[in-house]
Amino acid sequence: MFSRFGKDRAQAGGHTGERTRPSRGWADVLAFLKASDSLRVLDFGTTSPANINFLTSLGHSVYMANVVQDANRPEWKRTTDDGSDEYDVDGFVKSSLDFSGRDFDVILLWDTANYLPAPLVPAVFDRLHKVLRPNGRLLALFHGKIEGPETAFSRFQLTDSDQLNVTSAGDYAVRQVYQPRQIETLLEKFSSTRFFLGKDNVREVIAVR
Fold it and tell me: How many domains does the chain have?
């Protein structure tokens, strides 16, 4: 699912946060958003009127994508003769990450990668590198555990501080945990990366194009 919300199309409403968590990565991106004008932001996850309102109030245009739902559709996977799973990676990328020629200044990927089938993840980061403008920022979160309350599939809602409101967004489970070396490999095409480790065992990364 991919949709656009410009400065004149913000929606009212939102959900009450179930919990809050500090985010040094979000604080970094927020400073970048406040220091810039008319950026194009790609926000991953379920549609969030609260995020739309917040980002458009800063003067930026917002686009949304929810690829976790798309990635779990059965048409991307088939079982081979030896019983292993094979994914149509190119088909998934063309269908779910088609932004109609648009590029972006900020990509809020959140913890999307943890909920995708592993074969799709390198292609997702490759695609996002291509659609991120020079000097643009990508914020990605990576869970350090497969199970636990903090690994529940959630929507991260933005605030005007270093706090994120975290709300339940579905029943998807963490499929894989990525170690720092694996994350570095996924982001190797970016010009720079910065890592932050949260108290909830979530590793945050800011990658600059």
Answer: 1
The first and second tokens of residue 23, run together, are 């985010």
Neighbouring-strand partners of residue 141: 204
- The predicted-structure confidence for 172-203, as pLDDT tens digits, reads as follows 999 999 999 999 999 999 999 999 988 788 99
Q: Which domain holds residue 158?
A: 2-7+16-208
Residue 42's CATH number: 3.40.50
Q: How far apart are CA 53 and CA 82, in angstroms?
A: 50
Are the C-beta atoms of residues 83 and 71 closer than 8 Å to each other?
no
At 138, is the secondary structure helix, strand, or coil?
A: strand
- Give the closest residue to 129 by CA, choosing from 199, 52, 193: 193
Instruction: Tell me the pLDDT tens digit for each residue of 114-160.
Output: 999 999 999 999 999 999 999 999 999 999 999 988 899 999 999 99
